[in-house]
Structures are given as C-alpha cells and as structure tokens.
C-alpha cells in the first residue's frame, strides 16, 4: 500500500536527497563571483550533485509509491544521537575547559553510559589512557593541547 | 628500475623502520580482531600521528597494520562466527565449526599461515608489476593525466557495485571538497567564507578520520556485541611448527587463492571479501570432498585467508603507479602518502625510489612477521582481546581521533570540521553511499583540475586537445567501458537466464 504523503517525505533517502539539493544550490551562489575557469569544476560538481540527488529523490519516491518500506537508518536512534552528542560535547569541553580535564571525564562517562559499569576498570583505563597521552605527547613530544578558553589560558 | 628495488632493501632493516613494521603488525592483528574495527579505520586514525615520523617509519606502520588486520579479522570469525573485518566472512564458514569441535587453535594457525603466504605473494606481485607500469605512465602529459584521474574515479564508482547514482554523488562530493581553498593558479578563495583555516583547503586526514573512524565508533557504542561463541580459552592450540606438516596438502589452494587475490586486488573497486569468496568457491569446487566444506574443513579457512591477504599489496599497484586505489584501505593509504608529501603516480618512482621500494619490502616483511607474531606466540593471547569492553574501546578511539586531528595544525576548527565529515560519513554509510569515491575525489579532484587547466592552456582553450593522442583515446575508451561494462554484463546474464 502506498505510504502517506508525510511519511513519504520523511524517508531517509528522500530527506538526504533534499538536503543535498538545498546545500549544493546554496554553494552554487558564490561560484558566480569566481572567474569562469575557477568556477568550472566546482559548478559542474554542484550541478552534478543537484541532478543526481534529484534522480535519487525520484527513485526513492517511486519506491514509496510502490509501497516499498524505507530501511531505518538505525535500530536504536537514542543511542546514536546520544553518542553523537557526547562526542560533540567532548570537543566543546576540550575547547572551553581544556583537554586533560575533558578527557579524564569523557572516557569513564562514555563507557559508563554505554554499558561498561566496572568502577575499577574505568579508573584503571582512564589513568592508563590519560597517563599515556601525557607521557607521549606532552612530555615526549612537547605537544600542547587546548587548555580551555573559559579558563583564560 | 629493479636495481632501485635492491638498493632500497637495507633501509627496511634500519632499526626504527623494522620496529615500525613489528608494531604495525601487532596493532593490525589487535584492530582486526575487534569486530567493528577495520584496517581502514585504524590507518585513518593512525595517519595524523605519523606527521612527525620519517616516511618509511610511517609507511611501515601502515603496511604492518594492513597485513595484521587482514589476519586479525579471522580471530572472531573462527571463535565467534563474527568476521572481524568484511574480508573474513568466508573464514567463518569452516573456521567456526572447527572451533566448535575444539580445533579453534588449528583453524587460527591455518589462517595465519595462509594469510602470510597470501601477503608474501601479494608483495612480490607489487614488486614485479608496479615498476614497469610506472615507467609507462612517465610518458603521460596533462591530458592523459586528466583522463587517468577520470578513469580512476569511474572505475571506483561503477566497479564497486551498488547504486551508481550514489557512487557518483560520493565522487562529486569528494571532488567538490578538493576545490575548497585557494585557486591553484589565480589564488582567489573558493568557498572559504572568510575563514583563514580554509585557505589551504581541507586536509585529507580530517576527511579520512571523519569518514572512516567516526561511523565505526558510533557503531561500537550503538550495539552491544552479542555472540554465541565458544570459550576462547579452549582453543586446543599446539605449537605452530608442529601444525605446519598438517597444512602441506593445501599448496594448490594457496597458489590458486594467491592468484585470485592478486587479480582482485589490482581491479579497482573489488576487494578482500570478493577475493575470499571466489577463492573459497574455487577451492570447494575442485575439492575431492566438497561435502565436508562448511562443516569444519581447514582447507576452507586456508582458501579464504590466503586470498583476502593476497589482495593487500596488489591493491597498491594501481594506487602507486596511477593514483587509483583498488580498495578503501588503499585509498586511505594514498592519503597517508600525501601527508608525507609523496604524490602517488608516475613521479613517485622517479623522485622517491628509496621510499616507494622500501614500502614494498615492508609489505613483504610484514607478511613474514605475521606467522612469527600472530602464530605460535600470540594466537591464544590475541583471542582474549575479544573480551575488551566495546564502550571503553569506543571512548578511547574518540580521544585518539581528537588528538590526531588537533595535532595537524594545533586548532580546534579542524576537530569541528572532522565531526561534520563524521556525521556526513555516518549518514552515507547507513544509506549505502560508497565512501572510497569521496576520498578518491578529494585526492584526484585537484590533480584532475590542475592538469585539465594545463592541457587547455597548451591547447589555447580548445577542448579537443583532450582527445588528440592515442593514449588519451585509449583512456577515454577504457572509461566508457568501465561505465557501460557492468550494465552490458548484467543484461547479458539476464538474457541467458531467461533462455
């Protein structure tokens, strides 16, 4: 049975194709300011992306019309979104409060949230990883890591 | 040119270069043994850490990881019926039944010896075939180089299988990313949006880590590992040297599997899993006892493992000579070469013979070391790696990704960019958009644009310059063959099926 209009438009491939078309069209605007020879390759690629995504969109909508169900992108969306958010939060924390503090918190936090609940194991793993990073990068290679914008250093 | 090959040999035995191969092989086995991690991901994470290293140390690590991971994938395939890498799927067919009847140790020994033989054969193929091919490509001018780039992209899009529209979208995306930054000839900014960080373009490592490392980490955190595996402490392992005589009857399978793996490796777009399946099917077809296959036949493990390792170095033949990688790992390794200022293609052999030939020797020694490190010493201990908690592993990889990308230029902007590519990579992975064309598009995009513009300048703007010599026309014909070939082949088989 064909899907409803709303569910047809929320199919992952349809949404992705629409996203690519919008973004590629947005990037096409600045190509008009470039010299023709500089704009040639990017413009061809962006137009290619728009045309190909339109084909992808049509093919996906045809499948929807035939009643072919869309394959879900993940079986556990909450875990995927959680994982992404934690990774982004780790990057932001590194930027704003510093690398070592963020890392010492992130390793046990991520492992705990996603199912590894041994306090001793978490402690040992965190000490080994942070210690090894410090020994190799800070002590051995004099590599500076972010110290945190909020801390003003 | 083979003299250069011999001259490069002593470099491989320099202590640091040799240790790099040893560490690489061990790390590769560990990574391969972890379901969800792959050689591609490991090399992507490793590349940024090799910036400060000598090229042969960095390449030795990569060669070791590639060799080690292809065998490491057999460990969970045998013990848990979960292939550690996609190329180890065929290993599960007979490896797991062997483990169930208490012969897991012997199955792993067959796997490591076969992997080593496949790797050695592949390294010899690389040494013998790449130098003459590179000599031919030295004769190429700008229009031929442009067509080589187009042929490379077309190969990986259309021979990879799957949906060609998605392959083309991936390639367009990769080529588009390659043009971000300053125009190579006029110097004006393209798509930098006023960000100074973007002026030099997008560093390939940022793209590699985002596309190849972030999605597997999300997978590690998304699903807990469920197994029905046997207890890995009951492997029934004896010394590998005692087990070798039991394998002497597999020589035909090793020879056949090596040839299949080398051939598949050279073909752009194919890969280790296809090689392993083809070798397994051929060995089974020619076996005197095909009814025992699938129920714990050690020769089945040998057939699969020899082929999936035989495609490792051979995948680098088109990569090193033409800049066209045969597999995703080869594409990532090309990125690794670029990081060290080594542009894959004909000039590589002329300008850096010590490095490129040393790299080939490292592949050979990596394959030999596989037996010593993955065999009698480590089989039991590596099997226990499977007990490492996946969430903890995921957390550690996240930290390594951030460090690797941050240390390229010492700025957080690159980390945010990597996360953006990671999100795109995850969506592409889930919707089955192929990732190798993105990497190849980034590598070949700038290369193709530069040579196209050079050719047009030589021809004073006349595009017919691109079709004015025989080599260009051959490359155009090959590109068309690659594009229409799979469709014609499918139609031919469909019509035969109907008959």
Task: Compute the separation of the termini of chain A in Å.
Answer: 61 Å
**What shape does the CA trace of chain B take?**
globular
Number of helices of chain B: 24
Shape of chain A: flat
Largest sheet strand order of chain B: 1-2
As residue ranges, the low-confidence spans of chain B are none
Q: What fraction, in percent, of the residue positions of chain B are helical?
A: over 70%
Report mean pLDDT of chain A, rounded to a whole number: 90
Contiguous low-pLDDT stretches of chain A (5 residues minimum) are none
User: Count the helices of chain A. How many?
Assistant: 6
Structural class of chain A: mainly alpha
Taken as a percent bin, the fraction of beta residues of chain A is: under 5%
Strand content of chain B: under 5%
User: How can the largest sheet of chain A be summarized?
Assistant: none
Sheet/helix structural class of chain B: mainly alpha
Annotate the secondary structure layout.
The complex is a heterodimer of chains A (153) and B (499).
Chain A: H1 5-9, H2 12-31, H3 36-65, H4 77-97, H5 99-113, H6 119-140
Chain B: H1 2-7, H2 9-12, H3 15-33, H4 39-46, H5 55-72, H6 74-80, H7 89-100, H8 104-137, H9 142-158, H10 164-179, E1 181-182, E2 189-190, H11 204-222, H12 240-243, H13 251-266, H14 272-286, H15 298-310, H16 316-322, H17 328-339, H18 346-351, H19 353-374, H20 379-383, H21 390-409, H22 412-430, H23 436-458, H24 470-498
Antiparallel strand pairs in B: 1-2
Helix pairs in contact in B: 3-5, 3-19, 4-5, 4-11, 4-17, 5-17, 5-19, 6-7, 6-8, 7-8, 7-15, 8-13, 8-15, 8-16, 8-19, 9-10, 9-23, 9-24, 10-23, 11-21, 11-22, 13-14, 13-15, 14-15, 17-23, 21-22
């Amino acid at each position: 049975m064909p899907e409803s209009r709303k569910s047809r438009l929320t199919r992952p491939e349809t949404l992705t194709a629409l996203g690519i078309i919008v973004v590629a069209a947005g990037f096409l605007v600045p190509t008009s300011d470039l010299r023709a020879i500089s704009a040639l390759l990017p413009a061809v690629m962006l137009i290619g992306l728009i045309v190909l995504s339109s084909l992808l969109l049509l093919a996906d909508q045809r499948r929807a019309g035939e009643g072919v169900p869309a394959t879900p992108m993940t079986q556990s969306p909450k875990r995927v979104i959680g994982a992404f958010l934690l990774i982004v939060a780790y990057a932001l924390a590194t930027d704003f409060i510093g690398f070592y503090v963020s890392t010492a918190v992130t390793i046990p936090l991520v492992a705990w949230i996603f199912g590894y609940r041994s306090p001793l194991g978490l402690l040992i793993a965190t000490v080994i990883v942070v210690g090894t990073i410090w020994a190799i990068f800070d002590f051995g290679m004099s590599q500076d890591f972010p110290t945190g914008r909020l801390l003003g250093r | 040119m083979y003299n250069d090959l011999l001259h490069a040999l002593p470099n491989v035995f320099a202590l640091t270069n040799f240790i790099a191969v040893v560490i690489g092989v061990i790390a590769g086995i560990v990574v391969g043994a972890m379901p969800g991690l792959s050689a591609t991901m490991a090399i992507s994470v490793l590349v940024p850490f090799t910036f400060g290293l000598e090229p042969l140390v960095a390449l030795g690590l990569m060669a070791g990881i590639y060799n080690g991971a292809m065998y490491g994938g057999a460990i969970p395939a045998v013990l848990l019926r979960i292939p550690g890498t996609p190329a180890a799927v065929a290993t599960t067919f007979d490896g797991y039944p062997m483990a169930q009847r208490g012969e897991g140790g012997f199955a792993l020994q067959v796997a490591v010896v076969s992997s080593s033989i496949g790797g050695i054969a592949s390294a010899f193929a690389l040494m013998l075939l790449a130098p003459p091919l590179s000599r031919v490509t030295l004769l190429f001018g700008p229009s031929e180089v442009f067509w080589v780039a187009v042929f490379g992209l077309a190969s990986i899009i259309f021979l990879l299988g799957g949906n060609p529209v998605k392959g083309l979208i991936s390639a367009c995306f990769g080529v588009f990313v390659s043009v971000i930054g300053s125009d190579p000839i006029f110097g004006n900014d393209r798509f930098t949006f006023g960000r100074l960080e973007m002026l030099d373009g997008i560093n390939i490592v940022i793209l590699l880590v985002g596309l190849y490392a972030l999605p597997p980490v999300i997978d590690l955190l998304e699903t807990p590992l469920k197994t029905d595996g046997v207890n890995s402490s009951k492997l029934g392992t004896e010394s590998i040297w005692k087990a070798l005589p039991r394998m002497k009857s597999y020589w035909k399978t090793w020879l056949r599997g090596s040839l299949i793996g080398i051939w598949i490796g050279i073909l752009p777009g194919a890969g280790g899993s296809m090689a392993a399946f083809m070798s397994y099917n051929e060995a089974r077809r020619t076996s005197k006892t095909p009814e025992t296959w699938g129920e714990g036949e050690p020769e089945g493990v040998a057939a699969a493992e020899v082929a999936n390792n035989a495609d490792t170095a051979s995948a680098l033949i088109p990569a090193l000579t033409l800049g066209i990688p045969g597999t995703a790992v080869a594409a990532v390794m090309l990125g690794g070469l670029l990081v060290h200022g080594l542009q894959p293609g004909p000039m590589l052999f002329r300008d850096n013979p010590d490095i490129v030939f040393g790299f080939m020797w490292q592949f050979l020694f990596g394959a030999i070391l596989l037996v010593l490190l993955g065999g009698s010493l480590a089989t039991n201990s590596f099997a226990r790696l499977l007990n490492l908690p996946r969430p903890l592993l995921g957390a550690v990889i996240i930290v390594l990704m951030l460090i690797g990308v941050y240390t390229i230029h010492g700025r957080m902007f690159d980390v945010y960019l990597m996360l953006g590519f990671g999100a795109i990579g995850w969506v592409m992975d889930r919707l089955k958009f192929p990732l190798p064309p993105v990497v190849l598009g980034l590598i070949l995009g700038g290369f193709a644009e530069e040579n196209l513009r050079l050719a047009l300048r030589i021809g004073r703007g006349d595009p017919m310059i691109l079709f004015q010599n025989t080599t260009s026309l051959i490359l155009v014909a090959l590109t068309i063959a690659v594009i229409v070939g799979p469709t014609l082949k499918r139609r031919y088989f469909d019509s035969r099926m109907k008959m």
